[in-house]
Amino acid sequence: MLYKIEALTRVHKGRTILDIPALTIHSGQIYSLIGPNGAGKTTLLHLLAFLDIPDSGMITFRSTPVRYIEKSLLPLRRQVVLIDQYPILFTGSVWKNLEFGLSVRKIERKRRKPLIEEALELVGMQDFSHAEAHKLSGGETKRVALARALVVQPEVLLCDEPTANVDVENSGIILDILEKINREQKISIIFATHSHSQAHRLSLHTLILKDGRLSGLPRDNIFTATLLGQVEDRMVCRLQNDIRITVPAGKSLPKAVIVRLFLNPEYIVLIREREADAGRENLLPGTVMMIAAENGRIRITVDIDISVHIFLSQSEYAKNRPFIGEKVFLSIDDRAITIE
């Protein structure tokens, strides 16, 4: 166990920014932190970096409760490094920026050179060691900030929007680096992002924040749909790729023809191909594309010509054991469908 959070709150000017009853984060893994602006992502990262103090509750780090006195916090801060969304580099060369953290930690001068060279090479910035840090591009600045964090060899790396305001090339490089250091150096990584695709690519665990609270229900399954009309007692909705879903005609529906349709993953059932009942309403064939742990459950992404996400409990997953590439059916209960 890396972190354990119990009954944690953080309040600012009378507003509760974070309210997390319980959360456990394990060592050596990558966690993504998703949520809209103002959801509390940055606040949570600062608490995990021991740069902020909760108003109530407890954070345990490596099985030891955190004590908020400077003498206790300093050694914790040397194990955990936070890269801000807009990192600020010091005046001077890239080399000096990386050397600063080593100097603060009283690393001998003769040991600094190979550590700096290795960190710069890791982020592909070895040719910039003597460049003026303040003249770098946004993507180059992010990569140097990443090297500056890695040079001190942290056990935990926290990243606040690591690819925000970065071009596609540098964004890809940064994601590759995070993946590599977790795989090869076993550095635990927690990164905040707005991108579900980045979260799915890098992490097996996704923490979803909404209004300062952890949510187990990401609104991933949101699609634009066209209301085609009524067939008997049901209304037909057409999604992209001519996927058709029906809802009871008596269900409250907007007057618009083009609508937003949300499929609640809590009411979508995965059915093995051999067990499918062809007469069932809203039974859609697909292929399992991704399986990942998330907030104590198993998220499964099924391609039915669009990607649909469902959740299984740990016990349900252990019982059924669907596998990537398996042909399955999704049964979408009427309760799963919300039209706006």
Task: Report what the structure shows.
By secondary structure, this protein is of the alpha+beta class. The chain has two domains: 212 residues, Rossmann fold, CATH 3.40.50.300; 118 residues, RNA polymerase II/Efflux pump adaptor protein, barrel-sandwich hybrid domain (OB fold (Dihydrolipoamide Acetyltransferase, E2P), Beta Barrel). It is 25% helix and 36% strand. It has eight helices and 20 strands. The model has no long low-confidence stretch (mean pLDDT 89).
CATH topology of the largest domain: Rossmann fold
The percent range for helix content is: 25-40%
CATH second-level architecture of the largest domain: 3-Layer(aba) Sandwich
Order of helices and strands: EEEHEEHEHHHEHEHEEEEEEEEEEHEE
Count of individual helical segments: 8
Number of domains: 2
Strand order of the largest sheet: 6-7-8-3-9-10
Largest sheet: 6 strands, mixed
* Total beta strands: 20
Distance between the termini: 42 Å
